Amino acid sequence: MPESDAPSMPYWHVYTDAEGVSRQARFALTAFQFQGVGPGVAPQWNDKMDPSQAGVTFSVLPVGWVGEWHENPKPQWIAVLSGRWFVETMDGTRVEMGPGELMFGEDQNTKPRDGRKGHLSGTVGDEPCTMIVTGLDVTPTVNQPGRFR
C-alpha cells in the first residue's frame, strides 16, 4: 500500500514549555507503516513507539470529579473509552475530550504560577468518564510539543 495512503491519528499533547508552564496543543501520529504484527498476519497500519516499561491502569472518574491542579505522575497516554472529561493547562487552554480521543500527558517539571501547577482536570456531563491510562517509564521532555509525529 502506498505511503500516501498512510493514516494519521490526532492526539492532544499536554507538555511543559521552557518557562515551566503547562500547555496543550493538538498534533497527529503520522509514522504509520503498513505491515503485519507477526508472521502470517495480514498487514495493517502501525505507528510503533519506542520500547519502554509501561503500566496500564483502567480509571473511572465519577460524575462531578475534579482533579485539582497537579502534574501527570509520569508521561502517559490516556484514551477515553466513555463519558467526557476536560483538561485545563496553566496557559488557560481548556480542552474537552470524549470517547476515542487520545492525549499524551507530559506536564512534569512545571513551575507554580498563580496557584497553578501542572493541569486541572475533571468530568463533564452526567456520566462517569472511563479511560485507559498507559504510564511510561521514560524521562519526560521539556519544550517538545508534538514529540510524536
From TrEMBL:
Residues 97-126 are annotated as: Disordered. Residues 108-117 have a biased composition (Basic and acidic residues). CDD domains: cupin_BLL0285-like. This is Cupin 2 conserved barrel domain-containing protein. The lineage of its organism: Bacteria, Pseudomonadati, Pseudomonadota, Alphaproteobacteria, Hyphomicrobiales.
